[in-house]
Every structure is written in C-alpha cells, then in structure tokens.
Design goal:
Largest sheet: 6 strands, antiparallel
Organism: Candidatus Gallibacteroides avistercoris
Protein name: Beta-galactosidase
Radius of gyration: 17 Å
InterPro entries: Galactose-bd-like_sf, GH2_Domain-Containing, Glyco_hydro_2_N
Helix content: under 10%
Oligomer: single chain
GO molecular function: hydrolase activity, hydrolyzing O-glycosyl compounds
CATH architecture: Sandwich
Family: Belongs to the glycosyl hydrolase 2 family.
Number of domains: 1
Distance between the termini: 27 Å
CATH topology: Jelly Rolls
Length: about 170
C-alpha cells in the first residue's frame, strides 16, 4: 500500500469525499514527509499544519466476508482515517503504529478511497509535547513509515495493540 498515493499540503474542504477532484495533487510514495515537497524545501521553517493523503484501491468480491484492515506503522503527529467518505478511526502519536478494520466500508469489486487527514500541529498532549522550534531534534510529519493491508478471516489472532481496545481485538 506504499505506492500510488496523492498528497495535498494544507487543509482542504471535504478531503475525505469520494467525489473530490484530486487530479492536481502531488503523487506520493510512502514513507513520505510533509516537509520535503520540492516547492517547500530550502527554508528553515518547519511545517506544522495539515496534510491530506488519498489512495484508491479495489478488492475482489472473493474477499467479501473476510476482515480487511489497514495497518499504518507510523503517522506523525495525529490523523483521521476515512474510507469511501466514512470516518473509520483516529490516532494520536506517531511513535506507535495503528491498525483499523475497514471491512464495513468496502465497496466490493469497485474502486474504494482511502483518505488520511494528518495534523502536524502542536499538541501538548501528544509526544513530543512541545512546539518543534523548542526541540533539539526533528520529528517528521506525514505517513513516514510503511502502510499495509491485512486480509484475514473474521476469527483471527488480533494485533497486540488492538487486543486491549474495548469491543475490539482478542480471541
């Protein structure tokens, strides 16, 4: 799932909607860092705003009845995940990955849209917990680690991080 993403640096209204024209967005392959787009390089200012990622995918009808999950190994700093315009989950903190079950949002046999709104905005409750200009290191923002699709049976051994979530995971 690392290829064929489209990226928009900044906020856009309805970035999660299927009908949004993203044809002028920047093609991206993840891992991807929001700060390093060519037109924004060269300055000392670190981007601390919003970015959107979108990717289309198709799943065969033979997968219907399976559990389809998307696993992000690292998205910094906070994000909201949408599938076909529906909000699936949100996550804060880029040092621990997360997995979201998207089975209920799939349009089997047709194109599907995965959209991710990423925030690099300062949040005192999310590590590292300080504005970037007060740190002695640089943390990346965006989808800066791999993305995977995990197809499994409905009955499966859960991801260890999911197992402790209420009404999710476990045997």
């Amino acid at each position: 799932m690392n290829n064929d993403w489209a990226f928009f640096r900044g906020e856009t209204e309805n970035g999660q909607e299927v009908g949004l024209d993203d044809s002028q967005w920047i093609p991206a392959t993840v891992p991807h860092i929001m700060q390093l787009e060519k037109k924004h390089c060269g300055g000392n200012v670190i981007y601390d705003g919003i970015g959107w990622y979108r990717r289309y995918f198709k799943l065969p009808k033979s997968y219907e009845g399976k559990r389809i999950a998307i696993s992000f190994e690292g998205v910094m700093n906070a994000c909201e995940l949408f599938v076909n315009g529906h909000k699936v989950s949100e996550h804060k903190g880029g040092y621990i990955g997360f997995t979201s079950d998207i089975s209920d949002y799939i349009d089997w046999g047709n194109n599907n849209l995965l959209a991710l709104r990423v925030s690099a905005e300062y949040d005192s409750l999310t590590p590292p917990g300080k504005p970037q200009d007060r740190l002695d290191f640089y943390y990346y923002s965006g989808i800066y680690r791999d993305v995977k699709m995990v197809v499994s049976d409905k009955l499966h051994i859960s991801d260890e991080l999911e197992a402790n979530q209420v009404a999710g995971g476990g045997l």
